[in-house]
Structure formats: structure tokens, C-alpha cells
Amino acid sequence: MKYISRFSSRFSVIAAAGLALAACAPLPTRQTLPPAPQQAKPAPPPAVPNVVVRPIQMPEIRDQPLQESAPEVIAPREPAPALRPASPAVVALMNRARLQADTGEMDQAAASLERALRIEPQNASLWLELAQIKLHQGNPSQAEQMALRAVRFAADDRTEREAWGIVALARQSQGDAAGAAEARRKAGQ
Questions:
Q1: Interior CA angle at 67 toward 73 and 72, to 5°?
Q2: Cα–Cα distance, 90 to 81 (Å, whole number)
């Protein structure tokens, strides 16, 4: 009992002190907000430079002829890498690279394509475009290596021929006339 009365007396003292302090506080006043700023007229849209947008060419999908005697168990086939639709990130990076290349920003275009290749390393179209940029930058050795990767991952004849054409140009710029002739032969030129 003694404990409860001591607790209640302490509580009463603390509560009384709190009320006394609260009574000394100033009453809240109504604040006035500063006037709203005048809305300025929207700025005209920035001038857009002449930008050429090229549509992405998707490879053609061809049906394969059926075999006369089908095996008993048919395993599901993984489509060739170039025939799979590119991811939205790769499409965006490829479009950005094309715009950068069109405006002469070759280093940035190469960086955009390299980022896309980290997402889809077996995309022949990406390797082909990067090879073209490397050739334009004056790096025929790198252009040849990129074009050979495009050949390796090409799912259609057109992509493979384009890649061999770049290999021929790269070898020619390196002074390898025989290698360029061989690549032109493979490109069908």
C-alpha cells in the first residue's frame, strides 16, 4: 500500500508540473502563407535536330522441311539466337547506338552496343553493328574480330554475307589482300 501511495504522489507532482509548463506556452497563432508565385508561361519545346530513325530489321523466320521418318522422341529445339526477339533493353540500346552513330558519337555508340552485348552476347546483329563502328573508328583488327563473331552467331545468309563483307574490308585495311579476297568470296561479292 505504501508503494502505491508513493507512486501516485510522484505521478501527481509530475503531472502538475507538466500542466503548469503547458499553461505557460504561447497559444498557436494563425500563420499566413506567402502568396503563390505567378505561373510563368511554359517555355517553348527545345528545337530537335534532324534525327533519322531507322526501323529495326528483324530476321526472317523460315520453316524447316519435315523428315520422312520422324524419330520416336523429338526433343524441343531452342531457336537460333538471332531469331529470338531482342529484349526491350537491347532494342533501346541498339536504337540509341544508331542515333549516336548518326550524330558522329562513335565512342558512345560502341559503348551502347557493348552494353547490349552483355545482355545478349549471341546476337549477331549487335556484333555486326559493333564491327561497322570499329571499322569506322579505324580499328580494322577489332572490326574483323567482331564481324567473325557475327558470322559465328548468324542465323541467316544475309547477316552472314554482311559480316563477311566487313571482314573483307577489315582485312583489306590491314594489308591482307589474300584474306580480303577469301572473305569477299564467302560474302558472295
A1: 15
A2: 13
CATH of the domain at 111: 1.25.40.10
pLDDT tens, 131-154? 999 999 999 999 999 999 999 999
Query: Is the residue at 72 inside a domain?
Result: no
Please check whether residue 176 is in contact with residue 143, taking contact to mean a CB–CB distance below 8 angstroms.
no
Residue 175 has pLDDT above 60, yes or no: yes
Residue corresponding to grid cell 559480316: 163
Helix (H, G, I), strand (E, B) or coil at 113: helix
Q: Is 75 helix (H, G, I), strand (E, B) or coil?
A: coil
Q: What is the DSSP string of 144-168?
A: HHHHHHHHHH--SHHHHHHHHHHHH
Q: How many CA atoms lie within 13 A of 36 on its CB side?
A: 3
